[in-house]
Amino acid sequence: VHLSQTACSLLVLRAAKVPKRLANHVASVMLAPYTSAVTVDGAGRSLDQTIVGLDDVLARLLRIFRAVPEDIVLKYKYNDDGESLTLLTRLQDTIHHDLDKAKLKAALDQHVRNVRSLQIEVMKLDRVNVPEVHTKLFLLKNQLRTAERDVQHLTDQLRATDGQINAVWSSVLRDASNAPTTQLSPLDNILARVGEYVAACHRDVVIEAKLKKVLHAKRRHPSETSWASQLDALQERCVIKIQRLYRQRRAWHRERKAALADVEARRQLKHKRKAEKELERKRLDALRDRDAQRHMTRMKEKHRRDGDVQAKLKQQEDAVLKKAAVAESDRRYVRTLIIVLVSV
């Protein structure tokens, strides 16, 4: 049994499930050589065709399957698309942020201790409250405000560093979660390996053909094949590639900077809302304290008025009782005097 080149292309197209251009490449390049033969079609016409035996086709296909490089086999075996190194590089950048974070934490702890010491000193001087320490108290309060500003600055830097680390981890986890997780069957896995290997071979052939075409054009125009022109062309290609990579890196940095700015803006908005809520709470507490103070003042005034009224009533009652007692004493004196006079 023999197969023509067209039949081999159809066989590869159906068996390996590759695109038609790759099937034609396998049939024309990877399954060659063919033998020229004269065949007769159904109408009895003779045809000049290139054919190959079926055993040779199967043997060459088996050789293609066995020639798949190890990196492609490992890629499909472990489902690794080559992004692991990129992810590791991006995670490695967070190590520097961790070092900066540790330094900021140490400096922040030192400044916090300094602030607490200054607060204790200020409290001690406030309790003394004598004119001799007013200047020292003023200077200590200035130092305390400066130390508190330093603590706030270090806290903001630490928060920004945490934001950068979280942004990198979020990006890495998002990229890892977007990785394809589809598990292929053993047959589909093998066919995918072969398809990628055939595509790589086809790409190499196309590049080689382009190079041959360029070399042929240079041979036809010897004046353009000087080392200077080749060096200029190479420099131009390198410059174009460097510019392309630079633009890609700049775009990535812009996206990263925009993401960090967005995260920082959200964090600032959150802190602003929290501060506004805290101010509102303090305002309500102050209003409640003021109302309570006013109520206490009113109650004290009421108690004072009630006390004055009760004291006045008691004074009047004492005066009446005293007057009644004096009248009773006079009445008894007169009665006693009358009794004495009558008895005499």
Task: List the SSEs and their pairings.
Layout: E1 2-4, H1 5-15, H2 20-30, E2 35-40, E3 46-53, H3 54-66, H4 70-78, H5 84-128, H6 134-177, H7 186-220, H8 227-343
Antiparallel strand pairs: 1-3, 2-3
Helix pairs in contact: 1-2, 4-7, 5-6, 6-8
Task: Outline the structure in words.
The protein is mostly helical and 344 residues long. The chain has a domain of 68 residues. The chain contains eight helices and three strands. The chain has a three-stranded antiparallel sheet with strand order 1-3-2. A hairpin with a 5-residue loop joins strand 2 and strand 3. The mean pLDDT is 83.
Quick tags:
344 residues, mainly alpha, 83% helix, 5% strand
Give a brief outline of the structure.
Strands 1-3-2 form a 3-stranded antiparallel sheet. It has helices at 5-15, 20-30, 54-66, 70-78, 84-128, 134-177, 186-220, 227-343, and strands at 2-4, 35-40, 46-53.
The helix/strand class is mainly alpha
Proportion of helical residues: over 70%
Strand order of the largest sheet: 1-3-2
Give the H and E element order: EHHEEHHHHHH
- If helices are DSSP runs of H or I spanning 4 or more residues, what is the number of helices? 8
Quaternary state of this entry equals single chain
Strand content: under 5%
Say how many strands there are: 3
Low-confidence stretches: none
**Rg over CA atoms:** 50 Å
**Shape, per Cα inertia axes:** elongated
Average pLDDT score: 83
Distance between the termini: 181 Å
Largest β sheet strand count, sense and barrel closure: 3 strands, antiparallel
Keywords: Coiled coil
